[in-house]
Design brief:
The chain has one domain. 33% of the residues lie in helices and 7% in strands. It contains five helices and three strands, in the order αβαββααα. The structure holds zinc ion.
């Protein structure tokens, strides 16, 4: 960052935004398949009521067709957004749309806003739109 707190390089600026926010035109929320729960801090899900809820979701959400796409980055999920314990996807709808996106959504289609040119440089579709936990595709 420079002295004003801004990130001058457009790609680095986009990567910072992409830690938790999607680029216009790339959010799974727009598909109507994904929801955010009541708290937007992972820490809420680490104690008390939040921990109880998160443990229940990890054990039971799959039974109802839901999956947490943005788990912690690591061996199983190597690219994409940071962990979002509040974000869940409804697989009966999102699996076919993810397959469609894999086939048809291209970085070059991301356009119409300042910074859109960074989509291709970053590989937004592969790394972010498709950067979900593999269990959310089964
Ligand atoms: Zn979300």
């Amino acid at each position: 960052m420079d002295a004003s707190g801004q990130i001058p390089d457009p790609v680095q600026r986009a990567l910072k935004i992409l830690e938790y926010s999607s680029m216009p035109g790339t959010s799974r929320h727009h598909w109507g398949t994904d929801i955010d729960l009541n708290a937007f801090e992972n820490s809420w899900f680490e104690k008390g009521e939040g921990l109880k809820l998160y443990r229940w979701l990890k054990t039971n959400a799959h039974k109802y067709g839901f999956c947490q796409p943005y788990t912690a980055l690591g061996a199983e999920r190597v690219t994409g957004y940071q962990e979002e314990r509040w974000h869940w996807t409804y697989m009966p709808l999102s699996v076919p749309l993810t397959r469609y996106a894999r086939e048809h959504l291209k970085d070059s289609l991301i356009a119409g806003f300042d910074g859109a040119a960074t989509a291709t440089k970053i590989g937004v579709v592969d790394k972010y739109v498709l950067g979900i936990h593999p269990s959310c595709m089964q």
